[in-house]
């Protein structure tokens, strides 16, 4: 397909970054053996997909021994183990990653060439493993790779969804969702472990049992059981030195069917229980920062938390023969509130199953668990109705009540009796029907709670966890997110990687801070020329993808202005669209001016139920239609909305970007990680002082980033004055004109009223302050254009972005977690 033809080439460095001992002949023979004995084909009859399978198996074989060695060494040397519990892992493709980390890319390329197959084409046959919605899931995938790279004995635990994030199709500009089927042809990376199987209970009742010594024990008798079956994927670190496991759980009914019902002729009824059980791992919830609010979601959360904890305890018992020392040897990280039920479940397992006294079990739980918060948005902070928890997880609800009672007792004992404070720190929210605040449960059950950027962690202390933070002042810490440079630089941008290594030395492969060494070349004409040539080559490749998928022809020499992320009001794609329309108006009004030609590139999915976000996608496409077909703009401005944004598409867009749009309402984006990937690849950021933008500014230098708009404090103040924007709009003729045009149907002649509601919201209830920031943003975009015209200044800033981004390696982030939260070190050599 043309998709294959347009994909960036696999670590096309001309040499293996981390050369391995394997020879081309060895690999060629290994592929052929796998083709014959695992795929069951000969060379003459093998399809491209058969070759792909054979190549993956041959690659995987080179990981497995290291995997076993790492696993054994963890038992022998006993480093503290880390369990990373995440409902999402947004992995993408694995072949390029594995080859790159093993140092086998070029050897494999040569081996496949000798067999008459093209490695690039094979690579594009791999479906993206999209078991996540966005930044949170991608962060988990980067962390897995960094933990392996740093030789930390870690397991990732999550759910093996049959269907990951939906496939987005744009039909007449409207988002349509289709199920994605990444497992349709099997998954050659994973190992099914049918023997690793846990029974997960739901519903039923709790029985109090009094033992002969008079003590009361509680036994949960679930009404229903579902089995959790493990599937393991090895995660190989940089240079292949250490391999960890990503263990994903699949749900299976205890009985495949009800035979009596089947024999009575009710074939559908006979498998109803099986369907209900297996629905748990059917689909990833397509929500990002919006509450799913579904019972099935809670079943998913408990299912994977319980299976993972049972598995961790089993491993601990095997190694240490008792559970009391758990906190000494195990760190469990909760990735967001989704696994927060783990606090109650670990208590249940320790107290009810392993017979540990409550106080000791609580110490163990708190000592073991820590929690990462990823959002301040109130609607994304999970809470579950008490009656639902009571019905689905009755023993866990009892435990939550008891944890809460003891917690509130200790609050009162420490002298805090104020009713407002007690209500605020209680795990039970009494406001709108009784609900359990899962963030509070995670906070109280953890020894450390972290935010994901300096600003976010500061705001956590001031807002959602203000009162809890005051009671436990040492608990909240910051761990600014990071990205793995192996995927987001070495693999996604091999041309740039080669240039950086040639200039700054091979040290950049192991020490991201060594990127600083290219700073002195930021004005060196020869280096700038090569840097620009790499960018141009990447832009040519992206232009092909845009032509192919959007039918928009773009000139690779224009400014590529990129906003790629989930579509959400707080991320303010709308602000970008309004500016696009204002620029369109300005170009038409004064066509003779020296406009900087640019293409606005958008990509991103909206949650299926988020109608407003879907309307924003439609607006971007409507605006694109009008502008791209208007001869008066003469290519000065184009708009392209690339459908079905995923990890692989990001790998093509990011190396080709000139300008990175990070324009969220200040205080609302916890961190962002796309901002880091783009800046690392030399895009200049236009952004607000939000999330990790603040730290990116510190690292790349104030003069190499475009900052505009209100700060988080100013946002709070502005909202305090109300969010009616009529006066603001009245002061801005450009904004008025844009809103009039959109609201009156200039971009939707087929349905002139389509955007009347949207404009009405912006005018009267502009919670995300799009209007208030509009003028500053428009002005800042003109500064961008001015800088673009000064080519030397632009390239200097671009190079200094790449040079300054070393700190944002996820290796640094993971090292901080290991030191300050998990208290673990690299595992000794296998
Ligand atoms: O929105 C946040 C991003 O700012 C952040 O970079 C990412 C990783 O920390 O997590 C995102 N996020 C938050 N995704 N889902 C949530 C809901 O809590």
Automatic annotation (TrEMBL):
It catalyses: [(1->4)-alpha-D-glucosyl](n) + phosphate = [(1->4)-alpha-D-glucosyl](n-1) + alpha-D-glucose 1-phosphate. Its cofactor is pyridoxal 5'-phosphate. Signal peptide: none annotated. Keywords: Carbohydrate metabolism, Glycosyltransferase, Pyridoxal phosphate, Transferase. It holds the Pfam family Phosphorylase. It comes from the Bacteria. Belongs to the glycogen phosphorylase family. Allosteric enzyme that catalyzes the rate-limiting step in glycogen catabolism, the phosphorolytic cleavage of glycogen to produce glucose-1-phosphate, and plays a central role in maintaining cellular and organismal glucose homeostasis. Phosphorylase is an important allosteric enzyme in carbohydrate metabolism. Enzymes from different sources differ in their regulatory mechanisms and in their natural substrates. However, all known phosphorylases share catalytic and structural properties. This is Alpha-1,4 glucan phosphorylase.
């Amino acid at each position: 397909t043309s998709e294959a033809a347009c994909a960036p080439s696999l670590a096309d460095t001309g040499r293996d970054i981390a050369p391995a001992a394997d020879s081309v002949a060895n690999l060629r023979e290994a592929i052929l053996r796998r083709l014959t004995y695992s795929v069951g084909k000969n060379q003459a009859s093998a399809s491209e997909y058969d070759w792909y399978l054979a190549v993956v198996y041959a690659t995987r074989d080179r990981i497995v021994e290291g995997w076993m060695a790492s696993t054994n060494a963890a038992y022998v040397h006993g480093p503290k183990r880390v369990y990373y519990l995440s409902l999402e892992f947004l992995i993408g493709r694995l072949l390029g990653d594995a080859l790159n980390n093993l140092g086998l890319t070029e050897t494999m390329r040569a081996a496949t060439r000798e067999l008459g197959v093209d490695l690039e084409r094979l690579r594009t046959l791999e479906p993206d493993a999209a078991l996540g919605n966005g930044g949170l899931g991608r962060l988990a995938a980067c962390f897995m790779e960094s933990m392996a790279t740093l030789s930390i004995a870690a397991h990732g635990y999550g759910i093996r969804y049959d269907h990951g994030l939906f496939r987005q199709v744009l039909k007449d500009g409207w988002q349509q969702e289709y199920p994605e089927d990444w497992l349709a042809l099997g998954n050659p990376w994973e190992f099914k472990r049918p023997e690793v199987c846990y029974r997960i209970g739901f519903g039923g009742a709790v029985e109090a049992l009094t033992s002969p010594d008079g003590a009361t024990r509680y036994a949960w008798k679930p009404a229903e059981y579902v089995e959790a079956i493990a599937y393991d994927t090895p995660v190989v670190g940089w240079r292949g030195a250490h391999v960890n496991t990503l263990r994903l759980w699949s749900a299976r009914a205890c009985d495949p069917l009800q035979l009596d019902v089947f024999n009575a002729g009710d074939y559908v009824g006979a498998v109803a229980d099986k369907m209900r059980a297996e629905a748990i791992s059917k689909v990833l919830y397509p929500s990002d920062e919006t509450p799913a609010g579904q019972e099935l979601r809670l079943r998913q959360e408990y299912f994977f938390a319980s299976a993972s904890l049972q598995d961790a305890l089993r491993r601990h018992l095997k190694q240490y023969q008792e559970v009391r020392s758990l906190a000494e040897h195990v760190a469990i990280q909760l990735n967001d509130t989704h696994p927060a039920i783990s606090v109650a479940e670990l208590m249940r397992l320790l107290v009810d199953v392993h017979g540990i006294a409550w106080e000791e079990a609580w110490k163990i739980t708190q000592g073991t668990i820590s929690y990462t918060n990823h959002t301040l948005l109130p609607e994304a902070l999970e809470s579950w109705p008490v009656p639902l928890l009571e019905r689905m997880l009755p023993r866990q609800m009892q435990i939550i009540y008891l944890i809460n009672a003891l917690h509130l007792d200790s609050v009162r004992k420490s002298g805090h009796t104020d009713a407002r404070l007690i209500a605020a720190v209680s795990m039970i929210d009494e406001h709108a029907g009784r609900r359990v605040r899962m963030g509070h449960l995670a906070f109280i059950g953890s020894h450390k709670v972290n935010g994901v950027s300096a600003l976010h962690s500061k705001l956590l202390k001031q807002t959602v966890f203000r009162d809890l933070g005051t009671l436990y002042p040492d608990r909240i810490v910051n761990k600014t997110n990071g990205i793995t440079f192996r995927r987001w630089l070495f693999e996604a941008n091999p041309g740039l990687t080669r240039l950086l290594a040639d200039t700054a030395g091979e040290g950049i492969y192991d020490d991201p801070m060594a990127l600083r060494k290219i700073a002195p070349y930021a004005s060196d004409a020869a280096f700038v020329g090569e840097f620009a040539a790499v960018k141009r080559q990447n832009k040519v490749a992206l232009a092909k993808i845009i032509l192919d998928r959007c039918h928009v022809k773009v000139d690779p020499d224009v400014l590529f202005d990129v906003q790629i992320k989930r579509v959400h009001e707080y991320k303010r794609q709308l602000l970008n669209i309004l500016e696009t329309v204002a620029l369109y108006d300005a170009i038409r009004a004064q066509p003779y001016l020296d406009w900087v030609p640019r293409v606005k590139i958008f990509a991103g999915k909206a949650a299926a139920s988020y109608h407003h976000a879907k309307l924003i996608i439609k607006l971007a496409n409507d605006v694109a239609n009008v502008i791209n077909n208007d001869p008066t703009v003469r290519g000065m401005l184009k708009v392209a909305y690339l459908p079905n944004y995923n990890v692989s598409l990001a790998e093509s867009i990011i190396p080709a970007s000139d300008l990175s749009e990070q324009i969220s309402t200040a205080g609302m984006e916890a961190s962002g990680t796309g901002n880091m990937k783009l800046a690392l690849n030399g895009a200049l950021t236009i952004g607000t002082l939000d999330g990790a933008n603040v730290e990116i500014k510190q690292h790349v230098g104030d003069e190499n980033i475009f900052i505009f708009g209100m700060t988080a404090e100013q946002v709070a103040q502005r909202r305090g004055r109300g969010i009616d924007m009529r006066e603001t709009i009245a002061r801005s003729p450009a904004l008025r004109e844009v809103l009039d045009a959109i609201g009156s149907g200039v971009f939707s002649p087929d349905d002139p009223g389509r955007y009347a509601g949207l404009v009405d919201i912006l005018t009267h209830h502009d919670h995300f302050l799009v209007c208030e920031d509009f003028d500053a943003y428009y002005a800042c975009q003109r500064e961008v254009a001015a800088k673009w015209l000064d080519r030397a200044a632009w390239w200097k800033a671009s190079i200094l972005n790449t040079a300054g981004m070393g700190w944002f390696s996820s290796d640094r982030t993971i090292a901080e977690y290991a030191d300050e939260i998990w208290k673990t070190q690299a595992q000794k050599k296998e």
